[in-house]
Amino acid sequence: MGAEVSKQIERRKAIDTQKKNLCDLKEKNGCNFPGYDYNVQDRKNWMSTLGPEKLHVNQIVWPGTHDSATDEIGIPFISRPFGQCQSLSIYEQLVLGVRVLDIRVQEDRHVCHGILLCYHIDVVINDVKKFLSETHSEIIILEIRTEFGHDDPPNFDKYLEAQLGEFLIHQHDNVFNNTVAELLPKRIICVWKPGKSPKPRQGSPLWNSCYLKDDWIDTDLPEKKFESNMKYLSEQPPITSRKFFYRVENTVTPQADNPVLWVKPVTERIHPYARLFIMECISRGYADRLQIFSSDFIEEDFVDACIGLTNARIEGKL
């Protein structure tokens, strides 16, 4: 028992030290990157506001959410805090400005996070369609994967094509060089990542896992995650030559050997340092690599930072 208590005390000290290091770095270098003060007037239509005819797909800093469809997961006040990563619905996230969604499903087409269940995938699809019906020039990256440990939903690719066919941007390398205007009226890049079922083929209405990559670091230590994100990002090709989307997630996650297992208090350890991460990307020479930037419990300031940096790219300030 004494050894376990000592271990937890040292763990707490490590977390506090890492938070302080990030805070000191923020105080030293600031967060005044190009576009930091951009005034976002309409988050719901921000791509339209920036100009679809001049906004290239590979210029966008895509604000995304991690485990996007978990706002109603589990049982309130009992299991929900252990699996909830977002407090907003899919529609509310899209209105806020989110443009990359991370959806996990199990064999019966219900959204899940591990063993915890949420609503049927139809809820997600209907929210996406509602948003698209109310906007004209917003492009969404919709990633749907079979959750680890679960079987693929039968014929799920056919379901997605039937539900979203009119909006689907077909898998093609040329998309990365297109402007938003050149993709319209198609609106969704749908990445389907099955566990065992065949992956979407080249030219398919759906995109396969090769087109959306990340390097997930499973830790609850904020500086460790911050620097690991930076390291993996630095190893990516520049966005101008990249033929895939690369995601960095400003998140840390609860660990089984730590007494704090609720998502929100753990991810708050890194949450305030999103703008610092953008600033450090620029100061360390990796500004041309940042593309998808995701968060738990998404907020306006996170979205505004991504939009501001995107606008700076359009204006040639990076």
Task: Please provide a written account of the structure.
The chain has 318 residues and is α/β, with parallel strands linked by helices. It has a single domain, classed as Alpha-Beta Barrel (TIM Barrel). Helices cover 36% and strands 14% of the residues. It has 11 helices and 9 strands. It is globular. It starts with a helix and ends with a helix. The model has no long low-confidence stretch (mean pLDDT 96). It comes from Solanum lycopersicum (Tomato). InterPro entries: PI-PLC_domain, PLC-like_Pdiesterase_TIM-brl, PLipase_C_PInositol-sp_X_dom. One of its GO terms (molecular function) is phosphoric diester hydrolase activity.
List the helices and strands and how they pair.
Blueprint: H1 2-29, H2 46-50, E1 62-65, H3 80-83, H4 90-96, E2 100-105, E3 110-113, E4 116-120, H5 121-134, E5 140-146, H6 156-164, H7 180-183, E6 188-193, E7 212-214, H8 222-234, E8 245-250, H9 263-267, H10 274-283, E9 292-295, H11 300-314
Parallel strand pairs: 1-9, 2-5, 5-6, 7-8, 8-9
Antiparallel strand pairs: 3-4
Domain Phosphatidylinositol-specific phospholipase C X: 53-193
InterPro entries: PI-PLC_domain (IPR051057), PLC-like_Pdiesterase_TIM-brl (IPR017946), PLipase_C_PInositol-sp_X_dom (IPR000909)
GO molecular function, one term: phosphoric diester hydrolase activity
Short description:
Pfam families: PI-PLC-X (PF00388). The protein is of the alpha/beta class.
